[in-house]
Amino acid sequence: MFFISEPVFRWVLIGWALIAVVAFFGLLLIPAPYGRHLRSGWGLRVPSGLNWFIMESPALLVFLVIFVQSLPHSGITWWYCVLWSQHYGYRSLVYPWFVRGSRSMPVTLTLGGIAYNMVNGFLQSASVCWFGTHLHGEGLTVDAAMIAGCVLFFTGFLIHVYADMQLQQLRKSHGPDYYVPHGGLYRLISCPNYFGEVIEWIGWAMLTWSPAGVVFALWTAANLIPRALTSHTWYRDRFADYPRDRKAILPFIL
Question: Parallel, antiparallel, or unpaired: how do β-strands 45-46 and 105-106 relate?
Fold first, then answer.
């Protein structure tokens, strides 16, 4: 079984966090070329549904491989595995059905997504399976941070999934083009799906109480906040009647 020492793991986390900061500013300048921001010049393309399955499944598989190889576990580690599998089971097995028939995505983006999810899946699973203090206890240990983290995690997940479903219903009703979504948090922000994911992984950082969780939350924000800002601008430029009081990703703020 592959294993790294804890000091090396910490340095890898620091490097991964620095890359997230660079990615944040890079994505502000150059939006990722998929969905409404799809453009030529990024190579061959993969159908969207297949692309999301290929990109997201490594995060689930890597986590589960390390989890199984690290048995036995405490109750809290089993809980982490359930939550992780819930999210990435949805992202790799359910969400691809929502976007099938949508615009294709560049294979360069697919390869980048695979690399990101493999690294992140490894870091999160290594954190909770190898280096977490919870491994020394038995049963399911619950504290205030874990309760708050779970509330945020499930709240964010539900917001994320419901926003995806709203977009899916909009496409079913009007066709595969882009339209102005209404209802739910779309009344306040352009990208509640991204807002939900940011909340979800902040919750993960709290309930795992780990530096790796914090870095993942940082990466989520670094990826999705620029995406939300560019998507918000795109909506306002394309639709003359787009609600001017909507924000991009944080209600009433941003």
Answer: antiparallel
Alpha carbons 19 and 118: distance in angstroms, whole number: 15
CA angle 144, 148, 150 (to 5 degrees): 115
Taking each continuous run of H as one helix and of E as one strand, the counts in the chain are 8, 2
Q: Which residues pair with 45 in a beta bridge?
A: 106
Q: What is the pLDDT of residues 100-145, one digit of tens each?
A: 666 788 888 889 999 999 999 999 999 998 887 655 455 556 678 8
**Nearest CA to 109 among 61, 50, 46, 59?**
46
Return the structure tokens found at 151. Answer: 């509330």
How much is the pTM? 0.91
Q: Report the alpha-carbon distance of residue 15 to residue 199 in Å, rounded.
A: 23
Domain ranges of the chain: 6-238
Q: Residues 219, 120: contact at Cβ < 8 Å?
A: yes
